[in-house]
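Risk register update: the risk of archive-format incompatibility is retired. Evidence:
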Amino acid sequence: MKSRFLLVLFSVLALAVLVLAACQPAPAAPEKVVETVLVEKEVEKVVEKTVVVEKEAQDPMTVAKEFLKGKKICSVLPGPVNDAGWTTSAYNGLVNLRDNWGMEIAYREETKVEEAEAVMREYAEAGCNIIFAHGFEYADQINAVAKEYPDIQFLQTSRCSGQEPNVVGLCYSTGEGGYFIGMQMAALTKTGKTAFIVGQSYANLDWQPEMARQAVKDLGKNVQIDEVAVGSWNDPAKAKELTKALIEQGYDVFVLLADAGDVGTIEALKEAREAGKEVWGISWVKDKNYLAPEFVLGGWEERVWKQIENGAVAFALNGKPVGKGMPQGVADGVVTLNPTYGLLPPEAEKQVFDLFHKYQQEGQSAIPNLVVRTDL
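Archived output:
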């Protein structure tokens, strides 16, 4: 009986299990797991980079010096290099380029105008980088040769206009010196008759006596100012002869503007003073007081060496020949007043130098009637 009961019980339990199993939802199908693998691939990007190299700006004078070093400047000069005036000043300019800029120099003294073209052409064929003609008288010759050699830089003093593409005209802004020296002439003269003794006459120079006359007019004085040409920049005998003749006519103040001829003018003045006449000389181009300390004032200084240097630097900074005019004056530091060495009356000296310093600071407005020319 007991065994029968157990059999029934197991059967019921088995049935219950089957029923319960039938009531459960069918098992889900196995999930397919897709594993996403992130593969990091380095992407090469071509990046255009503009590399800015910051180069320290060089001083223009340093650039110019590097350019000029080893180059050669060859010159035609109108007089001897020891004339204590115009030619000496040019020679000093060449020495400056040699000693301070590393250039080689060559020059021909006492070059006649009719010889200049051939000499400059020889320089060009010899490989000179700069050919320099010192003086207005060489204008036609330098213009002609420059056209044949456009890769050479040509420089010429006493001309305010250049010639493209390779002639630089170096001149002083004419009139400034004439005005201040005119004031000195008016202060010195007792006879009212004065003169510029010049080597040769040309437009740029002629404006200086004109402004000297303007200065005298502005001072309210009646002073005659003449310009007398020797006809040469290297003729002391002729300069002496002309000066003596003028002294005999009552002239008592002379501006020394004849280069080597100035020695002759000074000799004439010395002889006149020994004869009891009160005569004076006023330097031009450079201070000639050392030649006659008793009666020659320092006068007007023309720094030709600085002019020549400025012309060479213009070529260097351009990197190739340049053709233009370069008029320069007080504001450019190429001209100035020299001492009077106590030879000018104190009140006149103060008046002249006070006005000069005012002009340095204020320019044209300081002297309304001064006309400065840069076109001659």
